[in-house]
Amino acid sequence: MSDQPETTDNSPLNELEENLAKAGNPDANPVEVILSFLNNEVYILSTDALDTPDATVEPLVLANVEGQPVLAVFSHPSRADSHFLEAAPNVLATHGSAILDSIGDEIGLVINPGSEHGFEMGPEGIANVRRDFKRAGE
User: Fold this and answer.
1) Residue 84: Cβ within 10 Å count
2) What is the pTM of this model?
């Protein structure tokens, strides 16, 4: 999947991006964006491929403007720019909820770094989402 072409089209490509695009509107509901992230497939980039049962994932971690670490997450494989793919060429699909379940307490995340369809969430925001959004049946 690492041979996905870069896209210069900023049109939303999926439900998550549709909600991200609406997030800037005055009547936007941030809960819809969070739920869309948690319940949809997202993509991380890894230096390692998951081609063996004991393979580990070394995801692409960037620094935000404050120099704090943030996990790079993409709403669609084509949103990963080539310079990100050079650093971590393996595109791995997962769900947003799995990201929040596995991310450490000292790291934030950034959805679509450098794209207009994106956002950043720090460790405190992640903790709030974990607290406030429970899986169905919990």
Assistant:
1) 19
2) 0.86
52: CATH: 3.40.1350.90
Cβ contact 40:47 at 8 Å? no
Sort 32 into a burial class: Cβ within 10 Å, 0-12 / 13-18 / 19+. Answer: middle
Q: Is residue 138 a part of any domain in this protein?
A: no
Instruction: Provide the pLDDT for residue 42.
Output: 97
d(CA 25, CA 74): 21
Per-residue pLDDT tens digits for 86-134: 999 999 999 999 999 999 999 999 999 988 888 899 999 999 999 998 7
Residue 111 contacts residue 20 (beta carbons within 8 Å): yes
Number of domains in the chain: 1
Residue 100 lies in a domain: yes
